[in-house]
Write a structure and sequence with these properties.
Distance between the termini: 69 Å
Number of strands: 16
Order of helices and strands: HHEHEEHEHEEEHEHEEHEHEEHHEEE
Oligomer: single chain
CATH topology of the largest domain: Rossmann fold
CATH superfamily of the largest domain: P-loop containing nucleotide triphosphate hydrolases
Structural class: alpha/beta
Strand content: 15-25%
Strand order of the largest sheet: 2-3-1-4-10-11
Radius of gyration: 24 Å
Number of helices: 11
CATH architecture of the largest domain: 3-Layer(aba) Sandwich
Helix content: 25-40%
Largest sheet: 6 strands, mixed
């Protein structure tokens, strides 16, 4: 019996086992075993030539992957937002390669990748799905593009990403495992943890850990515990763009919003656009900027003043030290101190060190050793 059959048997047993306190540990073991078997199957298939990804050079300040089913309008949207020339056709499977384009917005260069349309079973390799998903995993944000006529297909897309270990709009689980030489599995967790220490220990042992200190800092279920144990999950923000809204009236649009809600998407959180006519694209750009969490830093250059035309683009929460790393050269090696004016400063020209967190539209002057 091969991996596929073993996996199918375990999945069936999980479905058929009633979930309760008595079966919790058993189901936990099965899910942990299932995750491990899927990893080994994927490694096996990659080794036999089925796991290579598309070669896409990432450039710019951030990367967005456009994800959708075939013929949803991703190529048209890419062309409308960027300087790309992606082939567009009113038939399925137009996009056979990953087509990049660059969106220039608020001084930032944001790379958009139009990936081939995902089909059901992509995570298992259908339609070169694994190669496509490898590109998605390397992005900074996932932009789902769904048709106003088929909003429910978002579920299919999200399911394929989840099967490829992409976790959308959530933070990594707060789970830390420190292996020890003896003592078994010792669990430290909040008092309101839904899982028992026995279940936690069973899941961790299934992953080959016999002795360890396990620190859990949030309430979680078995699936999220397994995510916390595995080191190959990717956590990405996402946004849904509903395309072709110029082709429907308000009554039909209301039906589409109801379809989104049934698929688990807040209709008020989606963007409604027409890639063909350009409707809603400015609002979409603004949402992409906000969801990427980018900030503009205006550099005060000695003898030349403040450069407001080409800002240094960082991510929210990044510091003066991160700015030095991005600039490189003498700024990285010879940094002495910095002076900051703007939203993050207590006063104009505040002297700060590497750990100072910068904010959008700060003015930064770096002082280096000569």
């Amino acid at each position: 019996m091969g991996f596929e059959e073993d996996i199918a048997d375990i999945e069936q047993e999980i479905r058929e086992t009633p979930y309760n306190k008595a079966s919790e540990a058993h189901i936990g073991r099965l899910k942990a075993k299932l995750a491990g078997m899927k990893e080994r199957l994927e490694t096996q298939q990659s080794g036999s030539g089925g796991g290579s990804g598309y070669a896409v050079q990432q450039t710019g300040d951030a990367t967005i992957a456009l994800v959708g089913v075939p013929s949803v309008g991703k190529s048209t949207l890419l062309n409308a937002l960027t300087n790309a020339e992606s082939e567009v056709g009113a038939y399925e499977f137009t996009t056979l390669n990953v087509n990049p384009g660059m969106l220039s917005y608020r001084g930032a260069n944001i790379q958009l990748l139009d990936v081939p349309g995902l089909i059901e079973g992509a995570a298992a390799g259908r339609g070169r799905g694994r190669e496509v998903l490898s590109v998605v995993r390397s992005a900074d944000l996932v932009l789902f593009v769904v048709s106003v006529f088929e909003p429910e297909r978002y579920t299919e897309l999200a399911t394929e990403l989840a099967a490829n270990k992409v976790r959308l709009d959530e933070a990594p689980p707060k789970v830390a495992i420190t292996r020890t030489g003896r003592g078994g599995i010792r669990v430290s967790a909040p008092g309101d943890l839904s899982l028992s220490s026995e279940v936690v220990a069973e899941v961790i042992r299934e992953h080959g850990v016999v002795n360890a200190e396990v620190a859990i800092r949030e309430d979680l279920d078995v699936d999220r515990l397994i995510d916390g144990i595995m080191d190959n999950r990717v956590y990405l923000p996402s946004l849904v763009a509903v395309n072709k809204v110029d082709l429907v009236d308000e009554a039909y649009l209301a039906e589409a919003k109801a379809g989104l809600a049934e698929a688990g998407v807040d209709p008020d959180d989606a963007c409604y656009i027409s890639a063909e006519s350009g409707a809603g694209l400015e609002a979409l750009k603004a949402r992409l900027w906000d969801d990427l969490g980018l900030v503009r830093i205006y550099m005060d250059k000695p003898g030349r003043g403040v450069d407001y035309e080409e800002p240094l683009v960082l991510h929210e929460g990044e510091t003066v030290g991160d700015a030095c790393e991005k600039l490189g050269g003498s700024f990285r090696q010879g940094f002495r101190y910095a002076r900051v004016s703007g939203p993050s400063a207590k006063h104009d020209d505040q002297q700060v060190g590497r750990d100072h967190v910068l904010a959008d539209e700060d003015v930064l002057r770096l002082v280096t050793r000569r």
